[in-house]
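Backbone geometry:

***
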Amino acid sequence: MNKKEKNQLIDTLTEQISTNKYLYITDIANMDVANTSKLRRLCFKRGVKMVVVKNALLQKAMERSGKNFDGLYGVLKGHTSIMFSEQANTPAKLIKEFRKTNAVPVLKGAYVEESVFVGDKQLDALCSLKTKNELIADIIALLQSPAKNVVSALQSGGHTITGVLKTLSEKPE
């Protein structure tokens, strides 16, 4: 690969890194062709883009992106692939599901909305991250809860008052 091709690849990677808020760095070494194909198909089904890259080119693209990847430079060793996604936890769940039948991919690190996660031990924490829509639903549920309680109390109070009045009217004097 000549210098011009490398610069084009770095520019492409820089653009992908700049436009994505979620970046997972994994190691898929020691995977045979069949399992690699299964992983790529699963990534495609889930809307995750997986790219195998050279560490030096990835580091240059990270530096050019303008984002702070300082914590991730140390994991750029050995075989490296990147997973890009629209959802924060989709690649983590995909990795966890795929590892039920395989030992790899191994999570080296992740960049999730300006937060850096380093190491495979962070996989469970990344799986538990909520999507934007889930967070909005939680907030709406929290905001609706007091209103529902007030309406429920008013409705049940109406039945109680009606019952008391009916009992009093039926009571012989």
Notes: The beta strands are 22-27, 49-53, 80-85, 106-112, 115-118.
